[in-house]
Design a protein that fits this description.
Elements lengths: L1 H9 L14 H13 L7 H16 L12 H9 L4 H8 L10 H12 L5 H5 L3 H12 E2 L6 E2 L1 H20 L2 H16 L4 H16 L8 H12 E4 L2 E4 L4 H25 L1 H19 L1 H16 L4
Helix pairs in contact: 1-2, 1-10, 2-15, 3-9, 4-6, 5-13, 9-15, 10-14, 11-13, 11-14, 12-13
C-alpha cells in the first residue's frame, strides 16, 4: 500500500545514514499529511488516529480526554536516536548489531514502555462517583436495554474503519502506487550519484589507512559485522550460534570498525555528500511530479474528511 511504503520513505530508510526528516524535501512535503493519517508513528499510528477521534467525540459529550497511546518499541527507539551523539555511540556500541540489548535506544524503549501511564488516569480518579459514571458511559457506551448507547470509543473505531477503507481506495490508485515506488528508489539512486561515488572512494582509502581494507562504502562496513553475527536462513537473518568468546571478539571488532567508519565519514564529508544527493534527487522528483503529489494529498484529505469523491 502507498501509505505503508511512503511511511518507510519518510523514515529515511538508508543504510548509509540517519537523515533528519526536517532536512529532506519529501519529508517536509508529506509531514502534515502523514501526521493526519497517523502513519508517521508507524505501529501505533492508526491507534493515534483513533484516539484523536475519541478525544473529539468526548469533547462533544462535555469531557476532557487526552489521546492515550501506549508507546511501542519503534517509537521509543526513534526518540532515543535523536538524542544520541553518533560518535559516542560508535565508540560504545558500534552499530548496535551485537550490542543491541545494551544501547541507549533499547534502554529508553524499555523505560518508556514500563513507565507509561494513561494520561487520563489522574483526572478520572479525581472525579466524583456520578461524574465518573457519566464519563465511562460517554467513553464506552451504555448497555441499558431501554436506551442503549454507543460510546465514543466504539464510534471512533467505526469511523476509523470507514476512513481506512477510503484511504485504501486512494492507495490503490495506480498513479500513486507507481509514484511511491519511484520515491523509494531515490535512496538507492543517490548511492550512484557521482558526488557519492567520489565520497565512497575517499572513504575506502581512509578506511584502508585505518586498517580496514576491502570495504567499498559505509554500508559494507556494517554488513561485514552483520555477516559475522548472522546467517541467511531462507531469506531471513538468523543469529549465529556463537560462544561468549566469539561474540566478545565480534563486539570488539564492531566497535573498532564503527568508530573508524564514523571518523572516515567525517574526514571525507561522506554524510554531507549523501544527504546532498538525496535532497537534490528528492527536490527534482517533487518538481517533476507536482501535479500527482498535490492530487494525492487532496485525495487523502477527502478520505479523512469522510466526503465522497
Amino acid at each position: 500500500m502507498v501509505g505503508w511504503a511512503l511511511a518507510l520513505v519518510l523514515a529515511g530508510c538508508s543504510a548509509q545514514d540517519t537523515v533528519p526528516p526536517e532536512e529532506m524535501p519529501l519529508e517536509r512535503e508529506f509531514a502534515e499529511i502523514y501526521e493526519l493519517r497517523g502513519d508517521s508513528d508507524s505501529a501505533d499510528g492508526s491507534e493515534l488516529r483513533v484516539q484523536n477521534l475519541i478525544a473529539s467525540c468526548m469533547k462533544q459529550e462535555g469531557f476532557d480526554y487526552t489521546p492515550a497511546v501506549p508507546p511501542d518499541t519503534e517509537r521509543a527507539f526513534a526518540q532515543a536516536e535523536a538524542m544520541v551523539n553518533e560518535e559516542e555511540f560508535a565508540r560504545q556500541y558500534g552499530y548496535g548489531v551485537t550490542t543491541g540489548s545494551e544501547t541507549p535506544m533499547q534502554q529508553a524503549a524499555d523505560e518508556l514502555i514500563d513507565e507509561w501511564v494513561d494520561p487520563n488516569e489522574a483526572m478520572i480518579e479525581a472525579m466524583g462517583e456520578e461524574e465518573r459514571d457519566a464519563y465511562w458511559r460517554a467513553l464506552n457506551g451504555s448497555p441499558d436495554d431501554f436506551e442503549p448507547r454507543e460510546g465514543c470509543d466504539s464510534q471512533a473505531r467505526q469511523q476509523m474503519d470507514t476512513q481506512s477503507a477510503a484511504l485504501e481506495a486512494v492507495d490503490a490508485d495506480p498513479r500513486y502506487t507507481e509514484m511511491t515506488q519511484e520515491m523509494g528508489l531515490i535512496w538507492l539512486r543517490a548511492l550512484e550519484e557521482p558526488r557519492v561515488l567520489v565520497a565512497d572512494r575517499n572513504w575506502h582509502d581512509c578506511m584502508a589507512d585505518a586498517g580496514y581494507p576491502g570495504l567499498e562504502n559505509p554500508a559494507d562496513a556494517q554488513n561485514s559485522i552483520m555477516e559475522l553475527a548472522y546467517s541467511d536462513v531462507g531469506g531471513f537473518m538468523s543469529p549465529r550460534d556463537l560462544t561468549p568468546a566469539e561474540l566478545n571478539d565480534i563486539q570488539d571488532l564492531e566497535i573498532a570498525t564503527a568508530t573508524a567508519d564514523h571518523q572516515c565519514q567525517d574526514e571525507v564529508g561522506h554524510r554531507d555528500e549523501y544527504r546532498g544527493a538525496v535532497a537534490d534527487l528528492q527536490q527534482r522528483f517533487l518538481d517533476e511530479h507536482r501535479d500527482d503529489i498535490d492530487a494525492y494529498k487532496d485525495a487523502v484529505m477527502i478520505a479523512l474528511s469522510g466526503e465522497s469523491h
